[in-house]
Design goal:
Strands 2-3-6-7-8-9-10-11 form an 8-stranded parallel beta barrel, surrounded by 7 helices. The protein has a two-stranded parallel sheet with strand order 1-14. A two-stranded antiparallel ribbon has the order 4-5. By secondary structure, the chain is α/β, with parallel strands linked by helices. Strand 9, helix 8 and strand 10 form a beta-alpha-beta unit. The radius of gyration is 18 Å and the shape is globular. The mean pLDDT is about 95. About 40% of the residues lie in helices and about 20% in strands. It has one domain: TIM Barrel.
Length: about 300
Amino acid sequence: MPKTIVTAAITGSIHTPTMTPHLPITPKQIADEVVRSWEAGAAVAHVHVRDPETGQPSSSLDLYREVITDVKARCDIVLCLTTGGGLGMTAEQRVAVLPSFKPELASFNAGSVNFALFPVVARYKKWKFPWEVQYLSMTEDMVFSNTFKTLREFCHFFNEHGTKPELEVYDVAMINNIAYMIEEGDLRKPVYLQFVMGILGGIPATLENLLFLYKTAQEAIGDFEWSVAAAGRYQMQMCTTALLMGGNVRVGLEDSMYIEKGQMATSNAEQVEKIIRIARELGIEPAKPDEARKILGLKGLGKVNY
């Protein structure tokens, strides 16, 4: 029976505390959500951290350490630490988790994108914290920058510390970037692609676009492992399509606040349980963490620095 890797993207840096009361913010809340997702069947957890007082995305290594050491003491899930961080963070802040913790897996944004969140501001009249409006509004005039220079420098950190990059692909041109970095020897095959769909500024979340991304990657790269993440209402639709195509999937409160139309998800585990139920209806079993390690060629939990 085929196995699929289910990733839970726990808190991210997109949604803010006003948008949902279920967003994990403190290190304990984030760690608890990781463990609940593992119990529900996730093999990987994608981890950001936030200021525990305000919920603002943070690059604090102390907060990361608190989360990941807690999780490691309680379960064997693969932790995928972000190098995307929060919008407006410097490249140095974003990449600091690699030399500090030497994780098995970390996100690697494969190009620049107009990561636009500003239209959300008009939907809310009251905000819990002043930073939320400013943080979201600034994306109208901001590029999430990942130049070829920073991509090359990030590759050095990944290679030096034995961390597998999860290559975040927000649009089709980023596949060309990845192919170029493979050709230059900066990235090593086999690569792991995460098609991130439905972000304003990136590729729309449609069946046709997913097929286009997959076909383009086949032609440009050859063999690769891949997964799909999709924003908001597209989450379960696109992940189900990925299952039918033989891919892996990512769900979680980073990508969608809802479990179904009009009903907020109360936890990441709830979304994990739903996509696993769908997978099993299709005859697909979720991979265990050690099976995911083998599929992705990870170095193992014994070689991290936490």
